[in-house]
Amino acid sequence: MSVTNRLKGILKQILQPAPKRVTEFDYQTIPWIDKKEANIQQFSQQFAPGDSVPYDMAEKLEFWKQNGYVIFEQAIPTDWIDMLWGEVERVIDQHEKYDMQVRIDLPEYTQTPVLAVKDVPQSVLNGPYIKYMDFHNASVVGKKIMLHKHIVTFLEAVFNDRVVAMQSLLFKYGSQQPTHQDFAYVVSEIPSHLAAAWIALEDVQPDSGPLFYYPGSHTIRKFDFGNGIFFNNESTNDPNDFANYLDEACQSKGLQRETLLIKKGDLLIWHAALAHGGNPITNEHQTRKSYVCHYSSQNAYKHHRSEANKEPERYSYNNADVFKNPLLPQEEDIFQGGESL
């Protein structure tokens, strides 16, 4: 290559516009309900209260728009919950058999926080700071809870699109996670098309490190990690900076922090940008069994995150989808008790 051509190439690189730093969700692609002109009353006329919508949809959507979350009491049958947790206990007791992954937030696992269950001591698996990742792939009842009709019907209205479940996390103890917003870590093809469900697998006790959240915090200005609103290996700010910003921004806006003390079978569904976290555990023996699932829309999450270029294999319940895990096909639906439900 001649010197002239090399100089042209260098000059072209210099003159290319830098990638745009994303500092807010794209208003054109956010869910309809987040837009200023959203007419909830008109939209909700298509939902008549009944078996599939046993609540006032307009009332729930209005509450969601203002607060960034809704709570449904006694939404998930307790026998479904007991079956799911029984499967988790089986994995803990016979962990050497399973390849499913856990994330371990303990100092000694800093270098390898994500491991197969079979490679983690039972004492660690049975303790705090453990997240069981995508347990729903191994469990039929896990899928059915994840795509329960109450969750699907509400999120179908929020997205105005078919619902697709993205991932799940199971906890035995409180996460004690600092304040955060999920969109910074869980990203779909349209980042604003994200929501989560937090399902209580037992009654939540005040000393268990219960979830906390700031109603209305989904409307505050997004935090800049130094490279935009998503946290990754190019970020110059970290999750602690994120937490400090959110706490200060919520307090300056007069938003009151609330603690989630709900009963077994109750569920909280929250907006992608609701600021929330986990309180400290004040009784080390007190569990806080919970199941957290993240969702997107059909137009925003078309492929499994592990195989972005392949058409995923789908399971469908209640007119919503969840993808088969292409990395662990041998463990898909190994727990089939949920077939009878």
Automatic annotation (TrEMBL):
The keyword Nucleotidyltransferase does not apply. Pfam families: PhyH. Keywords: Dioxygenase, Oxidoreductase. One of its GO terms (molecular function) is dioxygenase activity. This is Phytanoyl-CoA dioxygenase family protein. Its cofactor is Fe(2+). InterPro entries: Phytyl_CoA_dOase-like (IPR008775).
